[in-house]
Amino acid sequence: MRADVDPFETELASVSDGVGDAGSPTDIERVVLQDGSSVVIRPLAAGDEAAIDSWFAGLAAETRYARFFAFLEQLNHRTQSELARVDHFNYEAIAAVAPDGSTIGVARYLRIGEPTSAEVAVAVADAWRRRSIASMLLERVATRARAGGIEQFIAICLATNHTVIRLLSRLGPTTVGPSDAGVVELRIDLKSTRPDRCAPEPASGGRRD
After folding, report:
1. pLDDT tens figures, 124-138
2. pTM of the full predicted structure?
3. Distance (Å, whole) CA 103 – CA 100
4. Residue 26 carries which DSSP code?
5. 7-189: CATH homologous superfamily?
6. In whole angstroms, what is the distance from residue 119 CA to residue 15 CA?
7. 152-158 vs 117-124, strand pairing mode
8. 38 beta partners
9. Which of 30, 59, 90, 116 is the most buried (most CB within 10 A)?
10. Around Cβ 168, how many Cβ atoms within 10 Å?
C-alpha cells in the first residue's frame, strides 16, 4: 500500500463495493475518537466469520469470560456461525473496524420470544477500550432495534460487570434483576430514551468502555 493511501478509504471502498447484506454505503461511518484515532462503524455483513475471528482475537481472557461466561481460547464453528448470523432485522450486528482492517468491537441483538424483545450484547477489543466505542456501537444497534419494532432489550451479564450495566442503562429505563450465581439480567425499555438512574455505577477505578 502506498504511504499516501488512507487505510480508511481502502476500508470504506472495500465495504461499499460489496455492500450486499452489510447495508447501504450511508450506513458506513468514519468516526474520529476523542484521542484523535479513527474507526469505521458499519453493519456486520451476514456470514462474515473472518470479522468475528478478528474481533475475538482482540479480546483478553477476562473480556472473553465477561462476554461468553467461559474462558475460551477459540470459538467453535457453531458459535462462530451464530455470531456471524445477521439479517439486519431479527439478527443485527454493528462492528467497529480499526485502520488495519481488524474488527475491534461488535454490538449485536437477537430477537427472541415476543417480536418486541431482543437480547443484546457488546464487547470491544482490550487495546481499544476507554474510547467510547462500546457506547457508539450500542447506540447504533439500539437505533436499528427501535426502527425494527423492538421495544425492550434483555441482557445477561456478570453482576460485577459495572461497565456494561452502566452503558446499557444509558439506552433507556433499566431494571437490574437480583444476582443469581454472580449473573444478573437487565431489561432496558427502548420506548423511552430517558436513562434509568437505578442501575449500579461502576466501582471506583473500574474499567470504562
Report:
1. 999 999 999 999 999
2. 0.83
3. 9
4. G
5. Gcn5-related N-acetyltransferase (GNAT) (3.40.630.30)
6. 27
7. parallel
8. 32
9. 59
10. 27
pLDDT in tens, 51-93: 999 999 999 999 999 999 999 999 999 999 999 999 999 999 9
169 three-class SS:
helix
- Residue 60 φ/ψ, nearest 5 degrees: -70, 165
Q: How many CB atoms lie within 10 A of CB 163?
A: 20
Burial classification of residue 125, based on how many CB atoms lie within 10 Å of its CB (0-12 exposed, 13-18 middle, 19 or more buried): buried
In this structure, what are the phi and psi dihedrals at residue 143, rounded to the nearest 5 degrees? -60, -45
Angle at 135 between CA 130 and CA 141, to 5 degrees: 145
Q: What residue spans define the domains of the chain?
A: 7-189
Which pairing describes strands 38-43 and 152-158: parallel, antiparallel, or unpaired? unpaired
Round to whole Å and give the CA distance between 27 and 39.
14
Handedness of CA 185, 187, 193, 198 (dihedral sign): negative
DSSP 101-123: S-EEEEEEEEE-SSTTEEEEEEE
Q: C-alpha cell of 16? A: 461499499
Which residues 6+ apart lie within 8 Å of 89 measured at CB? 111, 148
Report d(CA 94, CA 107) in Å as an integer. 5
Residues 6+ apart with CB under 8 A from 141: 92, 93, 94, 107, 108, 109, 120, 122
| Residue 41 bridge partners (DSSP) | 29, 96
- What cell does 15 get? 465495504
